[in-house]
Amino acid sequence: MSGKFIPLKNYKRFSEEEMLNRSQFINDFLQTRRTVREFSSQEIPIEIIENCIKAAGSAPSGANKQPWHFVIVKNQKLKKEIRVAAEKEENEFYNGRATKEWLKDLEPFETNADKPFLEEAPYLIVVFEEKFTKTDSENISKNYYVKESVGIAAGMLITALHYCGLATLTHTPSPMNFLNKILNRPKNEKPFLLLVVGYPKEGTKVPDISRKSFNEIADVK
Ligand code: IYR
Asked: Which of 25, 41, 96, 116 is the most exposed place for a label (fewest CB within 10 A)?
C-alpha cells in the first residue's frame, strides 16, 4: 500500500436500541424540513453559516478532491444584483423557455419570475462545482464524480442548516453563469446551486404536498 494510513478516530458504535432511537429521531427531524419561499430579513450570526459550510465540506467526494466552493453572500448590493440577474432568466423561463408540462408541474408551488427572497433573506450561499481544480498557474488537477460529490455536500449543508433551525430554498435559476460574474469566481467553477438561507417570514405558508411512502421509494430484496 503506497499511501499513509492512520487509525480510525472518533467512530462511535451504538447498541441496536440506541440505533433504532437515533434512526427514528433523524427521520422525524428531517421530515420537519420544508422548503420556504418567503424569508424574514432578520440577521443571523455568520459563524452559524460558516460552521454549516464546514460541516458540508466534510462530505465524501471522488478521490477526495473536494470539488466545491461556497460563497456566502450577505452584502445587500450583491444580493440585489443577483436578484436582478436571476429574475431576468426567470422571466425568460416563465414566458417562453419552460414547456407547458413544466409550468403545469410548478402550479402547486405558485412560483413566478419574482424573486424578492434573493434580497430579503440574510444570506445566499452559492455552491460552485469545480470540474477541475487549478493547483497553480500552469497545472490543473482533474476531479471525479463532481455532480455526485457536490450534490452530497449540498444535502449535508441543507441538513446542517435545518439542524440549526434555519430554513432554506434550493433555487436554480437557469442558466446561472451570471453568478461567476457577479461573485468574481474563476472559469473552472460552475454554479451548482443557489441556497437561500434565513428564518421563514412570519405567517408564511407552504404548499400542501406530501412525501412518497417508504414502499414507493425503496425495496428490500
Ligand atoms: N427556476 C424557476 C422554476 C422552478 C423550477 C423548478 I424544477 C422548481 O422546483 C421550482 C421552480 C423558479 O425558481 O421559479
From this structure: 96
Do the domain assignments include residue 14?
Answer: no
Structural domain of 57: 35-202
Asked whether the whole model's pTM tops 0.85, one would answer yes
| Residue 4 belongs to some domain of the structure | no
* Closest alpha carbon to 116 in 52, 48, 174, 171: 171
Secondary structure letter of residue 213 according to DSSP: P
Q: What is the largest CA-CA distance in the chain?
A: 58
Q: Which grid cell is 136?
A: 497553480
Mutational test site, ligand 1, from 100, 109, 110, 111, max ligand atoms within 8 Å of CB: 111
Distance 9 CA to ligand 1 centre (A): 42
What is the C-alpha to C-alpha distance for residues 11 and 9, in angstroms, rounded to an integer? 6
3 state DSSP class of 199:
coil
Q: Is residue 208 part of a domain?
A: no
Alpha helices in the chain (DSSP H): 16-31, 46-56, 76-92, 100-106, 117-120, 146-163, 178-183, 214-217
**What pLDDT, on a 0 to 100 scale, did the predictor assign at position 209?**
96
What CATH number has the domain bearing residue 48? 3.40.109.10
Position 212 in a domain: no
- Predicted local distance difference test score (pLDDT) of residue 1: 52
